[in-house]
């Protein structure tokens, strides 16, 4: 159910209409639960009310049909996407698989949990099987590629994603993923940009395309071009709102436009503050808030927010998102002049046994330029280069 935010909301409306018409319709309750879970998980609406609606729909499906695979699958998605309870989710998915052993969506659910548990080899095998069971779904190939990227098997990841892009050339996020894999693999903006050049002209204003192109221009020091790519994308564009706003702020900052940078950082600070008020456990919002506060010169608050994101999403509990929280904490330390703390955090990321982040990405990212001449950075080059 990899839908965009508008379609996720439409799915909720349609399945709610179905259960209103037939309160005993098990499949509709299960699908309604899954749709609520997706809205919560992808931050379309991560309020307690949305979580409660997901719970009620999933439990109603199980109540109506205790042995139905779709009912247990719905409860599994609820435990995973709403509560981050991995073992109960795996238990429910296991029950559902007994009735549907070749269900690629159930296998995908297990994969998503195994990734977060850091069990990447198991996740890879299950995702490859899911992709074989559903060969028309390019999204599953992208998921295979993402796991290979996390395992730092870049050449294999790129080959899988190249096939996925060829199968689904209208999925703009696929080009962005392959661009990122190639940055990790080759450490060359020139080679990676060639992939962005394959994005059809009609899709260049899509948020994922705009963000990737802007990032490439920013890291090459082309600030005017970087801003031009972001021009069609509003700051509050669904879940990318904070990301787009932060990109603008950092470009203004690097270009020396203090007035616009301050205004952009202030917007992002407010954006994430509101999200945290709704969901205090939203670790990515704490991370984004920390970067915005660092840009505003509010050092202690920035570091506190960055550390809070890592506390809420440690690698030990979430091997998928945890490394990213560490990268952003390193960025905050760098922006606030804490070079040693930044390098400690960069070293922690590079030493992880499985994360796609490598020294190539830190070399390319202009946000870390002030660290390059530090003796300890040169030591990291020798150790991890």
Helix content: over 70%
Tell me the fraction of residues in β-strands, as a range. under 5%
Report on the biggest sheet. Answer: none
What is the H-and-E element order?
HHHHHHHHHHHHHHHHHHHHH
Low-pLDDT parts are: none
Explained architecture:
73% of the residues lie in helices and 0% in strands. The two termini are 39 Å apart. Helix 1 runs antiparallel to helix 2 and helix 3 runs antiparallel to helix 4. By secondary structure, it is an all-alpha fold. It is built from 21 helices and no strands. The mean pLDDT is 93.
Task: Please provide a brief summary of the model.
The protein has 385 residues and is mainly alpha-helical. Helix content is 73%, strand content 0%.
Helix/strand layout:
Layout: H1 5-21, H2 26-41, H3 48-64, H4 69-82, H5 86-99, H6 104-116, H7 120-133, H8 138-150, H9 154-167, H10 172-186, H11 189-196, H12 207-219, H13 223-230, H14 241-255, H15 258-278, H16 283-295, H17 299-312, H18 322-335, H19 339-350, H20 359-364, H21 375-384
């Amino acid at each position: 159910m990899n839908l965009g935010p508008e379609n996720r909301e439409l799915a909720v409306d349609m399945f709610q209409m179905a259960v209103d018409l037939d309160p005993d319709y098990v499949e509709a309750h299960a699908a309604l639960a899954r749709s609520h879970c997706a809205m919560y998980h992808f931050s379309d609406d991560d309020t307690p009310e949305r979580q409660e609606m997901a719970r009620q729909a999933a439990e109603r499906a199980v109540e109506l049909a205790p042995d139905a695979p779709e009912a247990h699958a719905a409860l599994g998605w609820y435990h995973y996407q709403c509560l981050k309870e991995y073992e109960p989710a795996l238990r429910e998915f296991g029950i559902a698989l007994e009735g549907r052993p070749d269900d690629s969506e159930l296998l995908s659910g297990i994969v998503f949990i195994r990734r977060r548990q850091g069990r990447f080899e198991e996740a890879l095998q299950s995702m490859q099987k899911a992709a074989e069971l559903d060969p028309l779904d390019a999204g599953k190939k992208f998921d295979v590629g993402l796991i290979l990227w996390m395992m730092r098997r870049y050449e294999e990841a790129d080959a899988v994603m190249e096939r996925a892009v060829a199968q689904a050339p209208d999925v703009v996020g696929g080009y962005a993923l392959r661009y990122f894999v190639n940055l990790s693999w080759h450490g060359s903006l020139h080679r990676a940009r060639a992939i962005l050049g394959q994005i059809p002209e009609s899709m260049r204003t899509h948020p994922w395309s705009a963000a990737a192109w802007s990032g490439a221009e920013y890291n090459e020091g082309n600030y005017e071009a970087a801003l031009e790519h972001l021009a069609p994308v509003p700051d509050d564009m669904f879940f990318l709102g904070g990301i787009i706003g932060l990109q603008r702020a950092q470009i203004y900052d690097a270009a020396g436009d203090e007035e616009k940078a301050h205004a952009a950082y202030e917007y992002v600070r407010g954006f994430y503050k509101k999200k945290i008020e709704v969901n205090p456990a939203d670790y990515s919002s704490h991370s984004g808030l920390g970067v915005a506060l660092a840009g505003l010169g509010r050092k202690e608050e920035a570091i506190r927010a960055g550390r809070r994101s890592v506390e809420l999403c440690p690698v030990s509990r979430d091997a998928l998102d945890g490394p990213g929280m560490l990268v952003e904490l390193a960025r905050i330390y760098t922006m606030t002049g804490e070079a040693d703390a930044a390098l400690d955090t960069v070293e922690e990321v590079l030493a992880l046994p499985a994360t796609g982040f490598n020294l190539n990405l830190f070399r390319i990212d202009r946000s870390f330029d002030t660290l390059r001449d530090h003796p300890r950075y040169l030591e990291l080059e020798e150790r991890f280069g």
